[in-house]
Amino acid sequence: QVQLVESGGGLVQAGGSLRLSCAASGRTSSAYAMGWFRQAPGKEREFVTAITWTTGDTRYAGSVKGRFTISRDNAKNTLYLQMNSLKPEDTAVYYCALRSTVGAAYDYWGQGTRVTVSS
């Protein structure tokens, strides 16, 4: 089992920055990749960014590319999301997730942290 706990959400003005953290515990050695997803009010959850745990390869949704940066600290089993130039449309609950197997769905999820961007 893996436990994921997000932190760092809050209220920020448009143009501001926030850094989210996701602390992983348990069988984290099973991680193939980790990612961030978000769900805005009234919308479906959407992919934001992901990183391969061993190689550090990353990919981003087009809507956040150039503004958000995903990173990880393997020693601390922690995933980060640096969010810059925030926009009101970035308002959502942000979830971190872990994928154990290549090509499989994400099988562990955190409880989410809320980000609100005011205009």
Explain this structure to me?
The chain has 119 residues and is mostly beta strands. It is 0% helix and 54% strand. It has no helices and 11 strands. Strands 2, 4, 5, 6, 9, 10 and 11 form a 7-stranded mixed beta sheet that branches. It has a 4-stranded antiparallel beta sheet with strand order 1-3-8-7, with no helix packed on it. The protein is globular and about 40 Å long. The termini are far apart.
List the total number of helices: 0
Into which percent range does the helicity of residues fall? under 10%
Strand content: over 45%
> What's the mean pLDDT score?
95
* Rg over alpha carbons: 13 Å
Low-confidence runs of at least 5 consecutive residues? none
Concise synopsis of the structure shown:
With 119 residues, the protein is mainly beta. The mean pLDDT is 95.
Key features of this structure:
119 residues, mainly beta, seven-stranded mixed sheet, four-stranded antiparallel sheet, 0% helix, globular
List the helices and strands and how they pair.
Elements: E1 2-7, E2 10-13, E3 18-26, E4 33-39, E5 46-52, E6 58-60, E7 68-73, E8 78-83, E9 92-99, E10 108-109, E11 113-118
Parallel strand pairs: 2-11
Antiparallel strand pairs: 1-3, 3-8, 4-5, 4-9, 5-6, 7-8, 9-10, 9-11
